[in-house]
Amino acid sequence: MQAVRILSFAVLISLLASCSKAPQKEDFEKWANSQAGLKKIKEFAADLKNPMEARIEAIAALVRNNHDILVREIVEACGDKEKLASGISGKFMSGLKNPWEAAGKEEEAAIYKARDTVINMIRFLNGAEREAVQKAVAEWAFGAIREDEGAEQVRKKIEKTILINQIPELEAHGVAGAVLLIRNGFVIEKMFSYLLSLKDIAISLKALDAVKKLHSVPDVMIAYSHIDKIGEIEHPAAIEYLLDISVNTQQEKDIRAYAFNRASDLIEKDAVRKNYDMSGIIERLHKIIQKKSADDRWVPSIMILNLEGAKALDRVAAAFKDDHVYPGGSEDPMKSVVDICKAGFVPLKDRTDIFAFIVKLLNGGNRVQKTIAIVCLKAIEDKRGLAELKKLFNNRTDLEDVLGEKTTLGNLARNAAEGIEMAKEVDRALSSGALKEKDAELRKFYILVDLMNTGQAYRDLVEERFKSGK
After folding, report:
1. Angle of helix 188-197 versus helix 201-215 axis, rounded to 10
2. pLDDT bracket for residue 470 (50, 70, 90)
3. Disulfide check for 419: which of 215, 331, 378, 449 has CB 3.0–4.6 Å away?
4. How many whole angstroms separate alpha carbon 212 and alpha carbon 282?
């Protein structure tokens, strides 16, 4: 009887031991194939009291059975997620083999599962370990690619190792791969966006260099989306390249104009103008205004005056040759001449004797330069200009091929003189309280932009536009 009791007790101990035995790899594998088992794995992996090695093995079973989303959920919810992610990435790092050398589909699939798991764990890592994993993955994905390889070979090699949407997970370590893709014309916008998101000007300039190399390939046409991405790089090198595109006759006219507009936007950025040497940009603009095109003269001249100030006045004025190109521009030449006076000359009033320069231009310039001088005298609202303008009232020099409308130098001078007087009337009304500041600005705008009318017709048109524009 005593022997039976001892035997029963031994069986009980054995049963209890078997019940408390830690789950093994084969158990996790079995659990990974049912909903109840997945719940067990989730609970086991999340329990910090369980051995780390066993928790990692549980996660590995999920990976092998294609439960990637559940893996991320489990790690995210764990109190020691960084430590757990470190262990998981360490386990699967050894699986990053050359997919070109895989023995078959099964081995190739295992390589990709290892890749996906390691990359998915990066988000949970920090500091040196995060960098080390990113670097290792980047070397695995891009290390075998030579810069002199053809575009199609580069694409095949990258796509064989890493998914395009995984490259940004490598942060700075994915730059080399992204640059290779841009340079060879693949997923340009996506890779450019990723590189710019790193907020590192050195990396942004690598992206710029890559797209420039792509554009240098014969028959490659520049896309609007490329211009947009370049326009996000707040650096003179980006502006210079956009200006180069704007004068590249191999590109479509609309693309050239679009590039110039993006360059203009960048030049206005304080981050560019205050932090960098703009001399390269200024010299490019000076070359542009020498071209025989109205569009290449007006706006670039404004940009030069804004960047270089009064010392650029002579060179800018000299660019306005009397060569009959102005009505052929994309903008109304009357609007263009008003713009250069308002945005280019007027801002210099407080920095130089702009009146003296305008008078010099008026007395010694060609028809185009005289036209600019007359409108600019009106724009600066200097009463000293009245005497100079009155000398031209009877001048019948034709300006149709300058302003695009039938008018004369004398009529333009009369319009400017009357405009100055009307602007002074607005000033007096503002001082007396008869006009609000906003209304005074609007009246002066309508006075300035009309270059054709004189006398009562001029006053009536300004009044009509003012009332309809309020």
Report:
1. 160
2. low
3. 378
4. 21
CB 328, CB 335: distance < 8 Å: no
Continuous segment of H or E residues that includes residue 276:
none
Hey, where are the domains in the chain? 311-470
- Residue 288: both structure tokens together: 């542009």
pLDDT of residue 345: 96
What are phi and psi for residue 413, nearest 5 degrees? Answer: -65, -40
Write down the pTM of the prediction: 0.82
The tens digit of pLDDT for each residue in 26-57 reads: 888 899 899 999 999 999 999 999 999 999 99
According to DSSP, residue 450 is labeled -
**Burial of 274 (C-beta count, 10 Å sphere; 0-12/13-18/19+):** exposed
User: CA-to-CA distance for 446 and 438, rounded, in angstroms?
Assistant: 13
Distance (Å, rounded) from C-alpha 200 to C-alpha 257?
Answer: 28
Contact 413, 392 (CB under 8 A): yes
- The first and second tokens of residue 190, run together, are 């996506």
